[in-house]
Amino acid sequence: MLNLSIVLEDSAREAPDRTALVFGDLRLSYSFVNTVANQVANLLVSRGIGGGDKVALACPNSPYFPFVYFGILKAGATVVPLNVLLQGREIAYHLDDSQSKAFFCFEGTPELPLGERGKAGFEASSAEQFYVLPATPLATESEFGETLWAALGGMSGEFEAAQTDPSDTAVILYTSGTTGQPKGAELSHQNMLMNALVNDTMFESAGDDVYLATLPLFHSFGQTVVMNGGFRRRATLVLLPRFEPVEALRLMNAENITLFAGVPTMYWALLTTVHAGGGQVPTTLKTAVSGGAALPVEVLKDFETTFSTPILEGYGLSETSPVASFNQPGRVAKAGSIGTPIWGVEMKLIDAGWNTATEIGEIAIRGHNIMKGYYNRPEATAEVMNDGWFRTGDIATRDEDGYYFIVDRAKDMIIRGGFNVYPREIEEVLMTHEAVSLAAVVGVAHPSHGEEIKAYVILKPGATITEEALVEWGKEMMAQYKYPRVVEFRDELPMTATGKILKRELR
């Protein structure tokens, strides 16, 4: 018996009155969060949801996310977190691909019309149950409880977590991986729990730990390192649904934040704001963690000087739960390095034939963090798995001390602001436009997002459309982080003799 929900249940039992979540003026205890998760579990079980069933969740960083996330786990079902920026057609794809029976969707706001997209996606899918998470702001725990009690139909706050095996699937995280269509990485209860536990041991405890949770909780980084690891530590999570550097700095000071985890663009934004006089450097910050993309050395140095806090840079993927390596406390941190493997995990460099490489090669990983496989995709799983090893598609070197340094990506993956974007998916959508004949998408350097998405397009003979109009069309068809911001029309694209587009020349 092993259920990931233990990270919440144990803390609720041992520190029931400790503040688990801060959301605006709302402060919720561990006991309260656990009780509401129990209500969600009772609701699901009463509707026939149980072991092996998939339940999707689309919600920004608000108390609803952990309520539903842990309620699903307690019921013995599998959580399928969805990016809140997905469009309706993309939501429908994820619901059907994961075979989700139920879908919890945030009602949305004018700035984030997730509710409309979610309903459209649900109606276009084969999912059976649709639950709306209301956007009405509430100020107190009692007020929040009364509203939830009505929404949950008066479900009991007592629930005995379903028995799940360590190898049962806890979460399916969608990743573009090595093909155009997103694939669901199946992560077991053991995968997720071990990654949260091991990561937690690497962070210094401040006694009363307070985490700023602005990384999306639907993303593997925020989910494991911030939410699951934070709940296991009995830390207080201060929820910030959308990262804004001025507000992040205000919360760091007002809530005495001790740990901040972010992608490189967030660190860049914090520094830019502080240097412009738009925020005060916090004095309580003890740990800063970076992942999701390579952290520029100059940003690292500037942050450590300005904030007097070292950044611990790590590396991982959705398929690795996610953390695989880290610049770990107690060891020398090397600028530009993704560190060394975490406890219980092995890494090596390999060539295209899975043979061990010496000087440079593709990173392969083995350990407790490796996914079970891609959901319902045995062939795609076989392409990246071999005798327990997972090949990442990332090319790296390793120095004499065992530290790894990313050199390049073997895949064509674009990382925009910490989000993975796979060009083939974007190209296929662009080519559904009546004016587009051929499209090639690449990542180009961007000062704040790391990479921006650029599309080179050949129009059909006689077709007319402006580059600006095609950008706007893409905005309607794709998630906010996916659509190309830059379009360039070409009469031809560079190709090999066999017709393969030479994207390195376009870059």
CATH C-level of the domain at 1-9 and 24-164: Alpha Beta
Distance between the termini: 50 Å
Rg calculated over all Cα atoms: 22 Å
The named CATH superfamily of the domain at 1-9 and 24-164: ANL, N-terminal domain
Ranges with pLDDT <50 over ≥5 residues?
Answer: none
Percent of residues in helical segments? 25-40%
Using the 3D structure, state the CATH architecture of the domain at 1-9 and 24-164: 3-Layer(aba) Sandwich
SS element count, helices: 15
**What is the makeup of the main sheet?**
9 strands, mixed
Alpha-beta classification: alpha/beta
How are the strands ordered across the major sheet? Answer: 2-1-10-9-11-12-13-14-15
- What fraction strand? 25-35%
CATH topology of the domain at 1-9 and 24-164: Rossmann fold
Shape: globular
Descriptive labels:
single chain, 507 residues, alpha/beta, Rossmann fold, Luciferase, domain 3, GMP Synthetase, Chain A, domain 3, nine-stranded mixed sheet, five-stranded antiparallel sheet, 15 helices, 26 strands, 27% strand, globular
